[in-house]
Amino acid sequence: MKQAESLYQRACRVIPGGVNSPVRAFQAVGGNPVYIASGRGATMLTVDGQTVVDFCGSWGPLILGHAHPKVVGAVKEAAERGTSFGTNTPREVELAELLCRLVPSLDRVRLVNSGTEATMTALRLARAATGRQRIVKFDGCYHGHSDGLLVSAGSGLLTGGILSSAGVPAAAAGDTLVAPYNDLSAIRGICEAQGPEIAGIIVEPIAGNMGVVPPEAGFLQGLRELADAHGAVLIFDEVISGFRLGPTTYGRLIGIRPDLTCLGKIIGGGMPIGAVGGRGDIMDLLAPLGNVYQAGTLSGNPVAVAAGLATLHVLLEDPPYDRMAERARCLAEGLNAAARASSVRLHCAVTGGMFTPFFGDAPVRNLAGAKACSAESHARFFHEMLDRGFYLPPSQFETAFVSAAHTAEHIEAFVSAAAEALKRMG
User: Fold this and answer.
1) What's the pTM value of the predicted model, to 2 decimals?
2) Which domains does the chain have, with CATH numbers?
3) Is 48 a catalytic residue?
4) Does the annotation count 142 as an active-site position?
């Protein structure tokens, strides 16, 4: 018996489903989940001794790759001084100042422990600022697992075949309105019908939890205009896209200023972190200034802050964005060409260093398009590539990432392996 199989059997006895996050269970692709012993750069070593080139990147935080020396050094130094104090530390101020400087729409920012905490806090702020209850979200966009947002969510819910979650109160779900992503006419209709009741509109500006789906021209600007027209708070969930395409948010890159922005993943450099920030008048509603309560024992903890600062400084000092985008483009073009040669129905979407192989004919623009793609083909491709030493997200509804650690040789090897895999599948 392989070590991973033994570990999974042990885990199933003491952990629900054997995993601490559902997608790790490999339900969407079949087979036993992998267990990782270590990672360095663009590769990971499994407990059974297989070296794999990693295109999952811990679901997005590891833009510099595994165990980057400057990040590891910063974590060691911080841990040696103390892992948590439950009080204020100088470097959390430094991280907040850096985020506000790099993202001008952040007048102020509150550090939290996860993207879920960030989005949950953003919704609470939107309701407090407007005195309204209803929230608009988009089909297939995942904003964490707080009650009101587990409605038509993407990512792990889709992977498990669940459109919502048991245990969510009907009242919480009832205050969440859902529109198709990239459909401005649908959201316009919702706002015209219920505008006076809408507290906020929350969106992934680049959808990353139904696979990578970029916004169509005018979609995000239209949301800004609708939020302004109806007095709603516009929230960009940039937990995935923040600092992914440049040393700032996607909102800033395209010139759209949301009222609130949620961050996570990259700003923690692989350690647990989240942040919510935005307009000063809204952020000042947070306790201790205002009456919107939010707290966390480990918020702004020195180890996560150190990892985040080290990551952001590397991204500023030696920006990898053009290189990552070019390598992702080459990967996507090579994958599409291999699919055509093999007669496999596949279209690889790519935005910056983000990509998703969709097993269908046409570009995907919303959740309906993503769900129309072949999950069976994705599962087979996943295992064909894993057998060849390449680790992709084990779900067709997740985004893959090219990191700063991936070389041109990694991309060439991936395309070559994909051509072999697709030929076997064709």
Assistant:
1) 0.94
2) 3-63+320-425 (3.90.1150.10), 69-317 (3.40.640.10)
3) no
4) yes
